[in-house]
Amino acid sequence: MKRKVSKKSKRRLMIFGILSIIAIGYFFVTLIGYTYNYISLKNEEKSLKNQLVTLQDKKANLKIEIQKLNDPEYVARYAKENYLYSEDGEIVLKIENNTPVVNNIQTNNNYYLIIGIGVLLFLVVVIKIRKKEKK
Asked: How far is Cα 105 from Cα 102, in angstroms, rounded to an integer?
């Protein structure tokens, strides 16, 4: 036997169902927002930790540099190398190193040599194949 459900209880169930769906939707939207915020904060924390390590290394290097700068011999050598400072009777000559250009030229020559050998081998193979076809 079927039980009759009154219009009032149907309306109550409909309102409760709609409110439940709205509450569940709000929960999921809030959960997604908090999750996104959590992930972005974790990524920011990771990048800040990396930045902290980098800055700590830089701080250690600067402390070493400060200790070196307290040595008068180091300061004199540093000024001569970086600022072309010279004492009385000294002449400073700055010679730039152009070896990367030479290495680049050698690399190009090797490249052309390899291509030439490859073409030569290709021609030898083609000539042998044609000789076999003629026989």
From this structure: 5
**Is the separation of the CB atoms in 69 and 75 below 8 Å?**
yes
Rounded to an integer, what distance in angstroms lies between the CA atom of residue 111 and that of residue 103? 12
pTM of the model: 0.46
Q: How confident is the model at residue 43 (pLDDT cuts 50, 70, 90)?
A: very high
Any domain includes 120 = yes
Give one word for 84, left, alpha or beta, with left for phi > 0 and alpha for psi -120 to 50: left
Q: State the total domains in the chain.
A: 1
- Residue 122: exposure state from Cβ atoms within 10 A (0-12, 13-18, ≥19): exposed
* Structural domain contains residue 77: no
Rounded to 5 degrees, what are φ and ψ at 33?
-60, -45
In a domain, 116, yes or no: yes
Q: Is residue 113 part of a domain?
A: yes
Any idea which residue has 């291509």 for tokens? 115
- What are the tokens at 93? 């000559």
Q: How far apart are CA 93 and CA 84, in angstroms?
A: 8
